[in-house]
Each structure stands twice: as structure tokens, then as C-alpha cells.
Amino acid sequence: MSVIPRELFMRFRGPEPIQRTPLGNAIDKATLKLLQEAFISSSDKNVVTSPLGVMILLSLYNTGAGEETQQEINNYLGGACPAELAESYSSLSRKFSTLNPECLTVANKIYVNKKFTLWEKFSEIARNSYHSGVDKINVEAPAAAAALINEWAENMTRGHIKNAMAESDIKPSVTAVLVNVIFFQGHWSVPFKAIDTKEKDFHTSDGNVIKKPMMHLLRAFKYTKCANIPARMIELPYKEEGFRMIVVLPNEIDGLPAVVEQAAKTGLLDDIFNLRVADRVDLDMPKFDIENCLDLQDLLSKIGVNAIFSEAAPGIVKDDFINVTKAIQKAFVKVDEEGAIAGAFTAFVTCRTTSVYIPPPPVKFTVDRPFLFMILHEDIILFVGTLSK
User: Fold this and answer.
1) pLDDT value for 354
2) CA 125 to CA 343: how far, in whole Å?
3) Do 226 and 371 form a contact (C-beta atoms < 8 A)?
4) What is the pLDDT of residues 103-137, one digit of tens each?
5) CA-based angle 368:374:377, to the nearest 5?
6) Fewer CB within 10 A of the terminal residue: the chain, N end or C end?
7) How far is CA 212 from CA 25, 185, 249, in A?
8) In terms of pLDDT, which residue wins out, 260 or 205?
9) Every domain of the chain and the residues it spans
């Protein structure tokens, strides 16, 4: 007979229960929709993205956009109007700004063609609600302009994201570049031991079996069988308060596409908030490292955000109309025995428009097949991705 110390349960429960919020619900659904399209478009099905970075820029752009664009962005982000969205994301920005920057950095910047000026209202919203800096660039010197943006992104991600913006992206017609960086570095509350990491079988998405370095822990974790998705779920907490990784393991070896498809319809927060402590979980999980660059124009168009690339936005740049001509995101994640590092650079380029008990047997949770993962702060999804090979 074993006794589970009270402090063990307190560590999992945390000082205060995590509250579910309307913004978290909206971000959940929007995140999984974008992941589905990125997963479908990926050739190797190894994907990492920060839809939150996309949503922040969309909500900012929305404050100066045309009516059709605003409606599409409102529909995708789940807001009633641009002002409501701005307030939601402003509150989120304020919250993130109070967190330890060594753990999480969320930063925005607007680079404006030196020949143009932002409308005062848009500039005020960007600075005060989105904590965005505003700098001038010379688009007639594209190499220098791209280097300025890349230096900022590299600094914000502590050197992990380099050359995010190509010189070729800075054309003479560029009026402004809206950029966002999200960078996370977390440490497991209980680290894996490197000595326990062994090469084990992993079933890939193309039906092959390969060897991957599998980390191992036998301890208490929050765990659930998903209600509406053919999968099980586990939470790996970070020692940094409020942060956690969720691993969603399909029931079938080839079940990841169905899991992604269903998650895009229902979201995953219902299951996340159904997680309960399982006192003994026998976990095997691969170390992994993913980096990719996403064409957001293609992905956003597939989820109903099209007008941003064609409709004139009258409320951003003075005395001119603009639209987004390029939208990209460069993201990475690295997971090992100590924790995880993840980052994303997102850019919109705009141009003139033309207790006591007997323990049960441990729950086996062997991540030996394609799976979905997320990094959250409380109920807000920061990063999401899939590993298939």
C-alpha cells in the first residue's frame, strides 16, 4: 500500500485551478482549423505553427481593414466586431507582458515605408493595445530593410530564428510590414533522465518503422481518454507556472489524420479540461525537433480569410489604400529531456492596392506513432503541431 503525498497532488493542481475563458475557446477552434490546413499541405506531416501569432496580427490589421475583410476575420477569430477583438487581444498582450520574459516573449512590430505614415488611430491602437513598436524602413534599400527586421526577430527569439524575412519580400510597392514573434522556453516540472532515453520503434505516417530516441518516465500525470476524438491525451507540466504541453496520441497507428480533422471541428479544450491525475503513467515519448515555413496566404484562404489579400484597407496608412500581398510564418520546436524551446515569426507584408490507496497498474502511454502536440499557457494555445516521422 502506497501513500501519495499531498504535495504531489498540489503540484499538479497548482495554486489556482485554470479557468476556461471565451477567448481561449475561440483560439482553440481557430488554432485547430489552421493546423488542419497546414497538416494537409505538409509533405512529411511534421508541422509546427503558432496560430496565435497569426491571430494577433489579424486582429491588429482588422482595426483598419475594409468591411469584407473585417467580417471574414471576425468569423475566423470568433469576435463580434474589430473593437471587441482588439480588446480581447489587448488584454491578452497585457497578461503576457507580466510573465517572465525568460520563459515567454510575445512581441509585435510595424515597419513602415519611410514615405508613408500610419493613421493616428491605428498607430495608437498598435502601440497601446498591442504593445507594438513602430519603425521606418527604406524599401528602396531592400537588403538593409530585411536585415533590420531579421535582426529584431533574431533578438526576440534569442538567435533561434534567423533570416526570417527575405530581401525579395521588400519590394518598392511595400507600405508596411506587420510582424509578430512568440518565443517560449520551458523546463519540465520533473525532467526526463537522459540515461533512460533509449532507441525504440516509431511507426511513421508512410507505414514504416524507424528508431527514435524515446524518453521515459514513470510518475503521475494528468491523463484522459478523449470523448469525441479517437485518441488519448496526456499533460506534461512545465515548472514555469501555467505552462504545459499536451500530447494527443491517436488510438490507431494511422489515426492522426482523423484526429486532426475531428479536432478542427470541435477543438480540444473540452478534453484538456477533462484531464485528471493518473497516479502512475508509464510514459515513453520521442525527442523531436521540427522547423518549417508556412505560406499563410494559402492557408488563410482555405479557412475563409480571403479578402485581406484583395480588399483595400483604408484605416492603416494615411492617404492611401493597402492590402496584404504576402503572409508567412517561420516556426520551430525542440523537445528533449530538459523541456522545450519553441518560436514563431509571423509577417504580413502590405502593399498599395492597386490521499491513501492501493495503486492500480500504471497507464501505458507509448508515443510510438504519429501524434499531435500543443504548448499552452493556461487555456491559451501558443504552439501546435504534429510529428509523423
Assistant:
1) 59
2) 25
3) no
4) 999 999 999 999 999 999 999 999 988 999 999 99
5) 145
6) N
7) 34, 23, 16
8) 260
9) 2-21+188-287+359-387, 48-186+289-354
- pTM summary value: 0.91
Please give the CATH topology (third level) of the domain spanning 48-186+289-354.
Answer: Antithrombin; Chain I, domain 2 (3.30.497)
Q: In the 8-state DSSP scheme, what is residue 302?
A: H
Contact by Cβ (8 Å): 234, 249:
yes
Q: How many residues does the chain have?
A: 389
CB within 8 A of 120, min separation 6: which ones? none
Query: 2-21+188-287+359-387, what's its fold?
Result: Alpha-1-antitrypsin; domain 1 (2.30.39)
Q: What is the pLDDT of residues 10-60, one digit of tens each?
A: 454 445 678 889 999 999 999 999 999 999 999 889 999 999 999 999 999
Provide the sign of the torsion angle of the four alpha carbons 72, 77, 78, 80, taken in this order.
negative
Q: Which residues contact 133 (CB under 8 A, 6 or more apart)?
A: 108, 109, 110, 127
- Three cell numbers at 325? 500581398
User: CA-CA distance, 375 to 81, in Å (whole number)?
Assistant: 28
Residue of 28, 178, 184, 163 lying closest to 106 (CA atoms): 184
Taken in order 330, 335, 336, 340, the sign of the CA dihedral is: positive
